[in-house]
């Protein structure tokens, strides 16, 4: 959804893309993470200042979801997010509400976590949310480009079940 001049949400058709080789929403990027295991444990670099997707550092925080819980939708006007699921599995869904974007109205799903380690870069004005699809709590680290301002947060929300974004959070069997 995007706002028109009067602040109303504008509806438009979308396409849901689920195949791993899909065309991503404009400006969304991923970085596959390399796991380095040995007999002592494992190491996984997440984001380096010399990575192609690194922009700048605002802060780092951890959020979680319990099995079946959906957290979303929201977008930012300034902030870019960098999501990494470090424990469990999440279905992370993006919706491009930018009228001037070549992928306006498109939806992307990413299945991230224990079985698919990656960084997901999310640009401003792209709605995003996630659902825990593991049988236990999933943990997400975010490395946003901006510091969270408690007095003036850069966060704009839509309820996940409002119908304003054309997406069904239920499991797709078959």
Describe the structure in your own words.
The chain has 174 residues and is mostly beta strands. Helix content is 0%, strand content 41%. The strands form 4 sheets. The protein has a 6-stranded mixed beta sheet with strand order 3-11-10-13-8-15, with no helix packed on it. Strands 4-12-9-14-7 form a 5-stranded antiparallel beta sheet, with no helix packed on it. The protein is globular, with a radius of gyration of 16 Å. The two termini are 29 Å apart. The N terminus is likely disordered.
Task: Lay out the secondary structure.
Blueprint: E1 2-3, E2 9-10, E3 15-17, E4 29-32, E5 35-38, E6 41-44, E7 61-65, E8 70-75, E9 81-87, E10 89-96, E11 106-113, E12 118-122, E13 126-132, E14 138-142, E15 156-157
Parallel strand pairs: 3-11
Antiparallel strand pairs: 1-2, 4-12, 5-6, 7-14, 8-13, 8-15, 9-12, 9-14, 10-11, 10-13
Determine the strand fraction and express it as a percent band. 35-45%
- Which stretches are poorly predicted, pLDDT < 50 over at least 5 residues? 1-21
Instruction: Assign the structural class, choosing from mainly alpha, mainly beta, alpha/beta, alpha+beta, or little secondary structure.
Output: mainly beta
User: Number of helix segments?
Assistant: 0
pLDDT averaged residue by residue? 89
Q: How many structural domains in the coordinates?
A: 1
> Major sheet: size, sense and barrel closure?
6 strands, mixed
Q: What would CATH call the homologous superfamily?
A: Jelly Rolls
Tell me the distance between the termini: 29 Å
Number of beta strands = 15
Helix content: under 10%
Sheet with most strands: strand arrangement:
3-11-10-13-8-15
Q: Radius of gyration, Cα only, in angstroms? A: 16 Å
Basic shape:
globular
Name of the level-1 CATH class:
Mainly Beta
CATH architectural type: Sandwich
* Series of H and E elements: EEEEEEEEEEEEEEE
CATH topology: Jelly Rolls
């Amino acid at each position: 959804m995007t706002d028109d001049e009067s602040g109303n949400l504008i509806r438009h058709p979308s396409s849901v893309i689920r195949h791993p080789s899909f065309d991503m929403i404009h400006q969304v990027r991923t970085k596959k993470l390399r796991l380095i295991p040995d007999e002592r444990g494992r190491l996984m670099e997440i984001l380096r200042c010399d990575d192609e997707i690194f922009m700048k550092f605002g802060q780092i925080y951890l959020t979680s979801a319990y099995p079946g819980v959906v957290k979303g939708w929201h977008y930012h006007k300034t902030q870019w997010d960098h999501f990494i699921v470090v424990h469990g599995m999440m279905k992370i869904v993006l919706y491009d509400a930018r009228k001037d974007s070549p992928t306006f109205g498109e939806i992307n799903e990413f299945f991230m976590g224990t079985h698919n380690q990656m960084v997901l870069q999310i640009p401003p004005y792209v709605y995003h949310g996630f659902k825990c699809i593991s049988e236990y709590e999933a943990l997400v680290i975010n490395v946003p480009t901006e510091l969270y301002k408690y007095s003036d947060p850069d966060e704009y929300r839509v309820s996940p079940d409002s119908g304003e974004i054309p997406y069904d959070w239920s499991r797709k069997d078959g």
